[in-house]
Amino acid sequence: MQSTKTVLKSLGVTLLVFLASIGLAQKETVTVWWPQSTSGETAQCLVDTSTPLFNEQSEGYEIEWVLQPPDDNYRNLIRTAVVAGSGPDIIATDGAAFTFELASAGLMEPLNSYVEQYGWNDLIPSWALGLVEIEDSFYGIPEELESVVLYYNKTLFEENGWEPPSTIDELVSLAETIQEAGVIPFAHAYSECIPCNEWIIGQFLNHYAGNQKVYEALTGQREWTDPDFVEAMEILGSMPGKGWFMGSLENFFSLTFDDMHAAIGNGEAAMNIEGTWHLGTIDLWFGDAAGNENEWGWVPVPTRDGSEMWDIGTGGMWSINAGSEVKDGAAEFMNFWFQPEQQALWFNECGFQLAPVEVPESAFADLDPRKAAIFSSLTKASAEGNIGYTPWTFWPSKTDVYLYTEIQRLYDGQITALEYLEGMQTQFQEEFEAGETPPVPAPGGSN
Q1: Residue 131 and residue 429: Cα distance in Å, rounded?
Q2: What is the Cα–Cα distance from 179 to 182, expressed in whole angstroms?
Q3: What sign does the CA torsion over 350, 351, 352, 355 have?
Q4: Cβ(276)–Cβ(378) under 8 Å?
Q5: How far apart are the first and last CA of the chain?
Q6: CA distance 123 to 115
Q7: Long-range contacts of range 161-165, CB-CB < 8 Å, 24 or more positions apart?
Q8: Disulfide engineering: 204 pairs with which of 152, 232, 301, 365, CB 3.0-4.6 Å?
């Protein structure tokens, strides 16, 4: 006769087999730490939408999110955890530079086997997959794809018979015409965000000198004092002193984002060079919401020869903790997250910006046609490699800080464009020789 203990043990085994057979066996948990750089509402929507979808379709894993504030404390928290061999399974950092730091220290898992398993080299453009590449190993996938465009007050343009520019010469000539008409050419003011100066610096370097020259400079093959870079900075450096940015140099240095967005919305200013992130709030400044009857339009930021180019930037990066005990589950969730149909869902349901994945145009069917055209063009340019380089993604960190802080001395006439670029070259060379420059993909477009 069997003992009670033996019977209970047998029943326990039978129960486990039964639970497994009906899909109720214990799943392993995959944790994600995510710096919550988006709005709280968007972040919660992403968590609430993705969690049940993944958990229902995965046979062996379930996802658990931990939202973190996107500040230096988060970086320190990640460092402390992964060095100790703990931390989350998926590490979402605030950018490629921090991911590169952790990967260089051996704290991130190489993704090569998962790239092959899931075909990520077909899903993710080579420039994006190679953002954190060390000795032929890949360590991260960009969370967001972003760029910069030229917004303009369409109503104001139509009333004055102005045409949106496609070349930098046309941009400069149009700004002169706009100012003569008593309108501010550009709604630019960065007193609340000194680093935001780099939005337009990167545009002029790429779009005047060309993405090939910028690539060569970022990879140490060309100096930042190249005549084309100097000419680009001479053009940009002269603009604030002419009153083209919010009417005066003083206004440019002191006014707020609300001031500049209100100015272009109500027609006091005509144009604004800003990122795709502005699409989330641009409608607040035009039409009924702003108490005016104006509409906005957009064109790609003009280039020297009039050809189209998109400067590419990324938000955070997703990687796998080298100390994770569920690396396969982490890779399974990353593969789920970055599929085009899921990206379209996050975009449409939660308003989350797309990753560098080519999403079908049908995903934008219910979107404002202007916004749909921007995202469609951006994802197409990304897939084709027709890219320029945003400073916050591709410049080494100290050179990036130099870029947006010292530009103010160029704007107020303390230094020349050549002196500004000589300083940038000196700082860049130090980081380049120290091996502190991030990987830079070669451009694949025609510029």
Answers
A1: 20
A2: 5
A3: positive
A4: yes
A5: 85
A6: 9
A7: 162/270, 164/297, 164/299, 165/299, 165/302
A8: 232
Q: What is the pLDDT of residue 72?
A: 61
Paired with 167 in beta bridges are 303
* Residue whose tokens read 């190489």: 110
Q: Look up tokens 């077909």; give the residue.
A: 122
Cα 145 to Cα 374: distance, rounded to the nearest angstrom: 12
Of 112-116, 154-158, 344-348, which gets the smallest average pLDDT?
A: 344-348
Point out which residues pair with 317 in neighbouring strands. Answer: 93, 142
pLDDT per residue as tens digits for the range 93-126: 877 878 888 998 999 999 999 999 999 999 998 8
Q: Enumerate helices (H) and strands (E) in the chain, giving the number of each.
A: 20, 14
Task: Provide mean pLDDT across the span 398-417.
Answer: 95
Q: Which helix (H) or strand (E) element contains residue 75?
A: helix 72-83
Instruction: Give the residue among 68, 58, 122, 123 at the shortest CA–CA distance from 90.
Output: 68
Residue 83 contacts residue 63 (beta carbons within 8 Å): no
